[in-house]
Amino acid sequence: MTITAIIEQGENGWLVGQLQEFPAVIDQGKTVEELKKNLMQGLEFYLEVQREQTAQEYEGRTFTQELLVA
């Protein structure tokens, strides 16, 4: 899986980025490397929240899980 960061110059010299594939993930950084690190941390947090919400939706139901690696 490829994840694309859309990067813009923000105010006061900061870079602002958003993940194209996960538009809810938005962050900032002073450098491109810092921004990319912050976006990846934001993605990890976003996915954890999604996992928790999905787990709540399936609570009390019978289901199976399969691990997919991209």
Automatic annotation (TrEMBL):
Database matches in InterPro entries: TTHA1013/TTHA0281-like (IPR035069)
Full protein name: RNase H-like HicB family nuclease
Species, as recorded: Hymenobacter artigasi
